[in-house]
Amino acid sequence: MITGSGSFDVSHPCISRGGGYTILDTDGTVVGSGTWTATKFVSFDPMGPGKSPGEGGRLELKALFDGTGTGVLNGLKQVVVQCSMWGDDKVGPPGYPWPSDFVTVDPYTDYSPGAVMFNLNQ
Known about the structure:
By secondary structure, this protein is an all-beta fold. It has no helices and seven strands.
């Protein structure tokens, strides 16, 4: 599980903030944990009616990870965050279904329907 918050600006490619992460084994026991800090904005592809950045999208960034335990992430990693803005696979706009909300940091992918949110600040 990866958590965090931050901000990014597509007009001046920059990103800030970070968060934490936890690695669980198959029984749900915590075996590793750490922190991450966003270091580089790579891209943002808005998704949704009218391609509005406030309605979801796919964010790619680089982040510095620091952790301890089994299977932890350390060093600079590529991160992909996707927000579909729709929490389940039964309701959605034209062209739905989109892929589920997720966060990927190789080798891990955390599918979190309804848990990823991008807020558009204008």
